[in-house]
Structure formats: structure tokens, C-alpha cells
Amino acid sequence: xxxxxxxxxxxxxxxxxxxxxxxxxxxxxxxxxxxxxxxxxxxxxxxxxxxxxxxxxxxxxxxxxxxxxxxxxxxxxxxxxxxxxxxxxxxxxxxxxxxxxxxxxxxxxxxxxxxxxxxxxxxxxxxxxxxxxxxxxxxxxxxxxxxxxxxxxxxxxxxxxxxxxxxxxxxxxxxxxxxxxxxxxxxxxxxxxxxxxxxxxxxxxxxxxxxxxxxxxxxxxxxxxxxxxxxxxxxxxxxxxxxxxxxxxxxxxxxxxxxxxxxxxxxxxxxxxxxxxxxxxxxxxxxxx
Length: 289
Prior knowledge:
With 289 residues, this protein is mainly α. The chain folds into two domains: 21-213, no CATH class; 214-289, no CATH class. It is built from eleven helices and two strands, in the order ααααβαααβαααα. The chain has helices at residues 4-18, 24-51, 65-78, 87-93, 109-125, 127-138, 144-186, 195-212, 215-224, 230-251, 258-288, and strands spanning 101-103, 192-194. Strands 1-2 form a two-stranded parallel ribbon. α2 packs across α5 (109-125) and α10 packs antiparallel against α11 (258-288). The two termini are 28 Å apart. Residues 1-18 have low confidence and may be disordered.
């Protein structure tokens, strides 16, 4: 009994010695260093994609890998007969036999398009490395139990983001392009589109879908700060789903409601996943209390 207080004070001193408080400027330097490493890794990967040859073309000819991937993307997005997701929509709209021609308005439009596709690929391939760099930055300020939680949610966020990227690339964008081709033919326009704008739409649509898939983590964070509860989510899910579909009807160009279903169905699934996560978190909080 007599020695417990001094021992506790020694333990506090030991912890404080192990985790000294760093000046704010040092944290800023560490943050900038983390950003510098991420930027270097990202740029190095882009350069590698631009100059790395497609292995199946060797040794007959040198063909950059990213341009080979561009040709595969062109075929997947615009050959509606073979695409399992956009094919049914293209047949419904009567554009399944349409031939889209991608044109270059400038000398380096194809190179710009290759860089845009490289950004999408880098976002998927390097996301674990980027997450690790961010974790390294915040890890010194975390306790052991906090580290386990952060690691678990980092893996969960990565899984959602990559799933969103894949869904955006393989499902959403082919359907969007089939609708765009249909609208172009309704106006009597020839199907000549800018290759730079084509890949800009792919990059923006794919990355936006990846970020959108992390919606459950946003809801969980709002629960942590006391903004939402499971009862709130359960009681208002009909209104939220209706509002989302109403918003999609206004912003998407497809008047047939098909693309709205493709975009809205994942949101409904993510919303119910958010409800399950919040309910699970509330159960844990009750057990602790």
C-alpha cells in the first residue's frame, strides 16, 4: 500500500519519457516529409507506367504499357456488344452497333490521356502504400489500443476505396458512356469524341466512386462525435434513399432511370452497412459502460 503511489508516479514518468511531446513545427515538418514521400512514390509510379514496355509485345517492338492498357480500356468501355454491363443498355437504346472514334485535338492529347489513366491505376495500386505512409505519420501519437483500432479501420477504408474504384471502372463508366453515345445519336451527332475528355471522365468518375464507397466511415465518424445514432439511421432510411435517388435523377443524363439504379443500389447497400456498423459500435459502448 505504502509503495503503490511512488511506483505509479514512476510509471507516469516512464511513459512521459517514452513519449516526449514534440514541438508543433516538428509535426509540420513530419507532415510535409510524409507528403513529399507520397508525391515521389506517385510520380515514380506514373513514370514507370509511361516508359515500362508491355511485356507481351517484347521482343518484337517497344510498346509502352500504359498505351497498351489504354487500348484495352477503349475496347472495354466502347465495345458495347462485348461489355456485360453496358451491353443490355446499349441494346435497349439501339446503339450496340455504334462505333465511337476517339480523336486527338492536340499534339499531346494522347499522352495526357495516358497520364489520366495512370493516375487511376496509381490510385488503386499505391493506395495501401499511401495509407501506410499516413499511418506512420500518426502512429507515434497513438496508444497501443488506438493503434489496433486505426489499423483495423485503415484496412476497412482501403477495402471500400478499392471496391469503389473497381465498381466505378468496370460497371459505372461503361454504362455512362453507353448513355452518352445514345444521347449523341439522338441529336444526330457523329460519334467523334476527344480522347483527353474521355479519359478525364474515366478518372473523375472512377475516383469519385472510390471516395463515395467510403461513406460508411463518414457515418461512423459522425456517430463517434454524437451527431447520428442507430435509431436516427433506421428511422430515416426511407427519406435518405428517396433523396439520393431524386438527386441522381436530376444530375444524371439518363432519363430511363437505369444509370440511377446502378449508382443508387451501392449507396443503399452502403447505408445499411453504415447502420450495422453504428449498431455494432453502440453495443460495444454499452458493454463498456
